[in-house]
Design brief:
Length: 398
């Protein structure tokens, strides 16, 4: 295991959090921009769902490839090269002036962005001791909260006052700055290179021959499937089905992200204290409450929508902390890079299929209302029950 000083370890965690922040903003900003994109390109929910799922499916494909070769490279080099590709693709999103060009740019962004989380978590697994790994993941995953608190609301504010392309152009600039910092902070991670590498097909056979890996992969993909049936359509449903407008959306993401700044470290601590599957079970069950509330057409004021958003962000996003810790602990260190890359592939495939399926279930009426969103919420809860069962099958190895 790579040994770092306390100060260097802290710098690494914050740098990885910054990397994750930009990756998450790049992915998340598409969803609250949905109303503007659907109007700009005159598209239906299914076509918007394809914009979201194209990123995730491309990310899944790249992560699937990386799962066979991830442990053949210095993790630092893999991280920086993928991040450079993401920055270029993000710039392409900002320059796109048609639905087709935007779709192509999202596919390229997904191809590089899909590997980022896997490589970052593999670095954590190689550098951070098991007894502190849950808290370290909590720090890095605060990127989700910061993206919701700062990145997405700011991006929405800019898009509302300028154009939908502007947030992507600014994010590309931020990516370049973070890339420079990462070059100096992220250490070489090469110990895994000492092991003998096997051919790609044999690598897949070795990886998938362990039943424990399978249960971890299935759990991750189902968690993402249940979440991303609902998440991409929160913004368009709020604008289309209630009295709220695009100008109210930044507050929903701001409040939702703000509460997770407090709750995510708490969930991370619980994950280090109690069995991962037990913490996961309780959070999944609690997540059903906001999922049902959010997917109903409730004609309530902004304050109630903010409360529902807070509960949604706390419990739906909170599921990923014990789930990630569960998967990270499910494998031997020699498999960790491949496991995390394959797990990222399963997560992205799960979220991509979910966004597309939910888009097919919903339709936009002549009056502009999104119909059948409540069906999507009920299906997401059923999927959540299934994840509780699969999570209990995962055994901690390291």
């Amino acid at each position: 295991m790579v040994q770092l000083s306390t100060a260097r370890e802290r710098a690494l965690l914050y740098t990885l959090m910054a990397l994750q922040f930009t990756v998450i903003v790049d992915f998340m900003i598409m969803m609250p921009l949905s109303s503007q994109l659907m109007d700009a390109f005159a598209i239906q929910p299914a076509e918007f769902g394809l914009l979201v799922s194209s990123y995730s499916l491309a990310a899944g494909a790249s992560a699937l490839l990386a799962s066979a070769i991830a442990d053949r490279f210095d993790r630092r080099h893999a991280l920086l090269m993928c991040y450079l590709g993401l920055a270029i693709a993000t710039l392409g999103c900002g320059l796109a002036d048609s639905y087709l060009l935007l779709l192509i740019a999202r596919i390229i962004a997904g191809f590089f962005g899909g590997v980022m989380s896997a490589v970052a978590l593999a670095i954590l697994g190689d550098v951070i001791p098991p007894q502190r790994r849950g808290q370290a993941m909590g720090v890095v995953m605060l990127a989700f909260s910061l993206a919701a608190v700062a990145g997405v609301p700011l991006g929405l504010f800019i898009a509302n006052h300028y154009q939908w392309q502007t947030p992507f152009l600014l994010l590309a600039v931020v990516c370049v700055l973070v890339l420079v910092v990462s070059w100096f902070v992220v250490p070489p991670v090469r110990e895994h290179l000492q092991q003998q590498h096997t051919p790609m097909l044999q690598s897949y056979r070795d990886l998938l021959s362990v039943p424990n890996h399978w249960w971890g992969f299935v759990t991750s993909s189902l968690v993402m499937f249940g979440g991303f049936m609902v998440i991409p359509y929160i913004a368009p449903a709020v604008v289309a089905n209630t009295e709220l407008s695009n100008s109210d959306l930044p507050y929903i993401y701001l409040v939702g992200g703000a509460v997770t700044l407090i709750t995510r470290p708490m969930i991370a601590k619980l994950t280090d204290t109690y069995p991962h599957a037990q913490v996961f079970t309780w959070i999944v069950l609690l997540s059903f409450i906001p999922i049902i509330l959010v997917t109903q057409t409730l004609q309530v004021g902004l304050l109630w929508h903010l409360l529902m958003a807070a509960l949604f962000f706390i419990f739906v996003s909170g599921r990923f902390i014990p789930c990630s810790a569960l998967v990270t602990a499910s494998c031997e260190p020699r498999f960790r890079g491949r496991v995390m890359a394959f797990n990222s592939a399963m997560q992205n495939l799960g979220s991509g299929v979910a966004a597309f399926v939910a888009g097919l279930i919903m339709v936009k009426s002549n009056s502009g209302e999104l119909l059948h969103y409540d069906w999507v919420g009920f299906i997401a809860c059923l999927v959540g029950l299934l994840t509780i069962w699969t999570a209990k099958k995962v055994k901690a190895i390291s």
